[in-house]
Design a protein that fits this description.
Layout: E1 5-15, E2 20-28, E3 31-36, E4 44-49, E5 54-57, E6 59-64, H1 77-86, E7 89-94, H2 105-115, E8 121-127, H3 136-142, E9 146-149, H4 163-176, E10 179-182, H5 187-200, H6 205-211, H7 214-231, E11 234-237, H8 246-254, E12 259-263, H9 265-269, H10 272-278, H11 294-303, E13 308-309, H12 318-321, H13 339-348, H14 354-368, E14 386-396, E15 415-425, E16 428-432, E17 435-436
Parallel strand pairs: 1-4, 1-5, 6-7, 7-8, 8-9, 9-10, 10-11, 11-12, 12-13
Antiparallel strand pairs: 1-2, 2-3, 5-14, 14-15, 15-16, 16-17
Helix pairs in contact: 4-7, 5-6
The protein binds zinc ion.
């Protein structure tokens, strides 16, 4: 009789936020069916010996740009998701600043067609803006898992939503329970400063940082927290970059605001010193800041103020990244493939534990986007989304070896220790022995049907934009009768 089990991974260390325990893992039909002592594992069609290796729930990256539709010369779903697969990332959430932007059902259909090539599972953030706020329900029905508001300007030049539209969007999403990721920078501050510096002739790399000072992030985070707290909407701060704005998050969490926060390896591990050497290659929004921000951001990750690691994987071609004027260098760089080795290297140095890392890379994002259970954990019944990691494997990151079309990276030449060597998505190898399994293209699918956002706690609904459209009962018309004496 043929065994019913597809794969048993033997002799590994299975990591969760609570523990690292020796166990073998049995997989059937794309799901984990048993985690336990090796002697208890059922016979399987295939065995993978993982002596000395760690099994992590596959990383869930809340923030990638796969550029398709619109900019397939920068990235496609096939190349971007191949980078994810080779980085131990099994689910991505993709951003709406494509062309067309993901703000209509028709545009979403184009993105879903492009996403059919994905190696890894995915969610799609729809666009929250003035033009889309009336269609949020339609976008959700058609498959978006969440929303993104570009409160700060970035690649694609989508106009920032007005505060009125943002408030109205949050009112609606508080009722529906879905979370909105916000690029939190104050557009007015950064446009004005850039204009002044361009007029004065500054074109150097540090001018980019000077145009987007931390106060632009502080102001915008404060503003979106105010709107989320008032409405009860779920809020996610994308790419938190400044030490100075952490206090707002800490206080909001203390008050019970449903806020989650991501930061990225570049804000933890890079700073302006490197920018002086790499120039436009490091141009990104928000900017990579002075060295004084690195450690407080790391501390905030360890203490839970920042919930998770994302990458803001934002590919451009080498030509688009290396132009004479900093203002002409496109913003962003690839990251989904390098996040795990970079972070594991820091774990190996003792800056946090592997259990912490699993909390940041898998558990917190799974919870934030409503997919914890099926995703984010190695346990019976969960999808077999697994990164098999060798904490002793050393490598030097080479931009020439990246899966991304964008073979230009600020991490080029950096030594790492601790790498994913196999990646499984729903039980199927998408990377094996460090190599992409090219036949697995198209294996990825939307997490939408697995997603379950619990009800949020809407507030001030009686004052919402929807509620003020009708005159309350018992209120007289404004044109009151003229008293008789004055007739
Ligand atoms: Zn981004």
């Amino acid at each position: 009789m043929k065994p019913e089990i597809d794969l048993v991974i033997r002799g590994a260390q299975v990591v969760s936020p609570e523990a690292i325990r020796p166990a073998s893992v049995a997989i059937a039909g794309g799901q984990v069916v048993a985690v336990g002592h090796d002697d208890l594992m059922p016979p399987a069609r295939e065995t993978l010996n993982a002596d000395g290796l760690y099994l992590l729930p596959g990383a869930i990256d809340s923030h990638v740009h796969f550029r398709d539709p619109g900019y397939p010369h920068k990235e496609t779903w096939k190349t971007g998701s191949a980078a994810a697969a080779c980085g131990g990332v099994t689910t991505v959430f993709e951003m709406p600043n494509t062309n067309p932007p993901t703000g209509t059902v028709a545009a979403l259909r184009l993105k879903q067609q492009a996403a059919a090539a994905s190696y890894v599972d995915y969610g799609i953030h729809g666009l929250l803006g003035d033009d889309t706020v009336d269609h949020l329900e339609a976008l959700l029905d058609a498959g978006v898992t969440s929303f993104k508001a570009f409160v700060g300007n970035t690649f694609g030049n989508l106009p920032a939503p007005s505060d009125g539209a943002l408030l109205e969007g949050f009112e609606k999403l508080a009722l529906l329970g879905y979370r909105t990721a916000v690029h939190a920078e104050n557009s007015s501050i950064l446009f004005r400063r850039q204009q002044k510096m361009e007029a004065a002739g500054r074109i150097d790399a540090l001018a980019h940082l000077a145009s987007r000072p931390a106060v632009a992030e502080i102001e915008a985070i404060g503003r979106v927290i105010t709107l989320a707290e008032w409405t009860g909407a779920r809020l996610h701060i994308a790419h938190h970059s400044a030490a100075d704005s952490l206090f707002l998050v800490r206080e909001a969490k203390r008050r019970g605001v449903d806020i989650t926060v991501e930061t990225c390896p570049q804000y933890l591990l890079l700073n302006t010193e490197r920018m002086l050497k790499l120039g436009g290659i490091m141009r990104v929004n928000p900017p990579i800041r002075e060295a004084r921000h690195n450690q407080p951001l790391w501390d905030a990750l360890v203490d839970g103020t920042i919930d998770m690691i994302a990458t803001d994987h934002a590919p451009h071609t080498p030509e688009e990244k290396q132009r004479e004027r900093i203002w002409d260098c496109d913003c962003g760089f690839p990251g989904v493939e390098t996040q795990m080795p970079l972070m594991l290297t820091e774990i190996g140095r003792g800056r946090a534990t592997l259990m912490d890392y699993v909390r940041w890379s898998a558990v917190a994002p799974a919870r934030a986007w409503g997919i914890y259970g099926p995703k984010g954990v190695i346990a019976p019944g969960a999808d077999a989304d697994i990164a098999v990691v060798d904490m002793n494997r050393t490598a030097v990151i080479s931009q020439n070896g990246l899966q991304s079309i964008s073979r230009i990276s600020p991490w080029h030449g950096r030594a790492v220790r601790g790498c994913p060597i196999h990646t499984l998505v729903r039980g199927r190898f998408v990377m094996r022995e460090g190599r992409l399994v090219s036949e697995a293209a198209g294996w990825g699918r939307s997490v939408k049907e697995r997603q379950q956002m619990p009800p949020a706690r809407p507030r001030n609904t009686e004052l919402s934009t929807a509620a003020i459209l009708t005159t309350p009962p018992g209120v007289p018309p404004n044109a009151l009768p003229v008293p008789e004496a004055q007739r």
